[in-house]
Design goal:
mainly alpha, 9 helices, elongated
Length: 215
């Protein structure tokens, strides 16, 4: 998988397409394994997202004297480009393994009513919110490498962000910028600052939830 070291790398379309593809399809490996699912992306859709990302950045480079947006503006621009609408969502499809067909079947041998209810709810939840969850997690982790303090988000925060993004289709890039800035403002004791450690993010959060249910 491509290693991300700086937001400037995403200016290059080829890097952007490959990086997003790998992060969406392979970055959530543990979750894919325990949930018997596979994310399928479309390179053409990712290219459209890159076009939106570049457009978002231009709005800042024109306005800023430095012509160099900080990590919060770049993270906001990235999240907005991946979220803005269904056309620029990198996800073409979510494929489910045959085991999920059995687990969601109330009449399947060895599957309790409670298990079938859980798996049906999980499949519906993941299909509805995966686009927003993966977009937020990717932008979050890209921003995180600049930070001196790591502040992990929890499942409730991820759910709230996914719901907020799903219910509000016209969130601006600037709004996402303020979300990221306020997140690390708290982590750094009241001041947003650069450089850092990686945060586990959504992969571990979702994997733990699914694994716990299966144990």
């Amino acid at each position: 998988m491509l290693k991300f070291t700086a937001f400037e790398e995403l200016d290059n379309e080829a890097f952007f397409v490959q990086f997003v593809k790998e992060q969406y399809e392979e970055g959530w490996g543990r979750l894919a394994q325990v949930s018997h699912s596979r994310i399928v992306t479309d390179p053409d859709l990712i290219k459209l997202a890159h076009d939106q990302y570049v457009l978002n950045l231009k709005q800042y480079t024109v306005a800023l004297r430095s012509k160099n947006p900080d990590q919060y503006k770049r993270a906001g621009a990235l999240l907005h480009s991946l979220y803005v609408n269904a056309v620029t969502s990198p996800i073409a499809n979510i494929e489910w393994g045959p085991e999920v067909d059995r687990l969601t079947d109330h009449d399947a041998v060895g599957v309790s009513h409670g298990d079938a209810e859980y798996w049906n709810k999980f499949v519906n939840y993941y299909e509805e919110y995966a686009t927003r969850m993966l977009a937020f997690d990717l932008a979050f982790r890209c921003c995180d490498i600049y930070e001196t303090a790591t502040l992990k988000y929890n499942k409730d925060y991820l759910d709230n962000m996914a719901y907020y993004m799903a219910e509000n289709t016209e969130i601006s890039a600037a709004s996402f910028v303020m979300i990221f800035k306020s997140f690390w403002f708290r982590a750094n004791g009241g001041s947003a600052g650069p450089n850092a450690a990686n945060s586990p993010g959504a992969t571990e959060v979702m994997s733990a939830a699914v694994s716990e249910r299966q144990s």
